[in-house]
Amino acid sequence: DEDDVEGARSKALVAAEKLLQANSDVKVEAIVAKVEAENVSELLQGVDLVVDGVDNFAAKFAINQACVKHGIPFVYGAVSGSYGLTKIVRPGETACLCCLYCDEPDADSSETAATAGVIAPVVNTIASLQVAAALKLLAGAEADTIDDLIQIDVWDGELNLIPVERKPECAVCGLSATTSE
Questions:
Q1: HSE, side-chain direction, 13 A CA sphere, residue 118
Q2: Integer distance in angstroms from the first to the last C-alpha of the chain?
Q3: Is 160 in a helix, a strand, or coil?
Q4: Strand arrangement of the beta sheet that strand 158-162 belongs to
């Protein structure tokens, strides 16, 4: 809330407090750390599922690579303006984030919420879709998940499901990547 922002409080610590207020029976471990390629595997130790809430592509790609390497499902999400995307990455089964973006010349220069702003309804929509996907995966209902990229624009009222094929030549999840480990 505004008090947390004014106090420059860590998002991780504030989220942990809010979650415990909602349900004191859950165990919450807040970790304040910058997600980078060098530390992401350590951060993911003991994790069954990752739901993406980071705000930069470098961290997203690091998470994607570590999740694929360690066989951890990853629910990607991104928002900018009124536009949002989400996709489930199931290592060894579905396309990963690199299958989706690594062929783009400047994937790191894409517009982000920090550069373009964002309206709250798209954040809520993408987060809701991510949580629904996570619940399905955790409940063992993988057959009920949507493997396509979900693209939504809440301003224009558009929703698209875009098939993304796993690329055999993908540096992260492709055939050469999986046989070289």
A1: 18
A2: 45
A3: strand
A4: 50-51, 74-80, 83-89, 149-153, 158-162
Whole-angstrom distance, CA of residue 86 vs CA of residue 166: 16
Q: What is the pLDDT of residues 60-109, one digit of tens each?
A: 999 999 999 999 999 999 999 999 999 999 999 999 999 998 876 554 55
Closest alpha carbon to 84 in 76, 73, 94 = 76
- Asked if residues 158 and 90 have their Cβ atoms less than 8 Å apart, the reply is no
Write out the DSSP string of 20-86. Answer: HHH-TTS----------TTTHHHHTTT-S-EE---SSHHHHHHHHHHHHHHT--EEEEEEEBTEEEE
How far apart (Å, rounded) are the C-alpha atoms in residues 104 and 157?
27
pTM of the model: 0.86
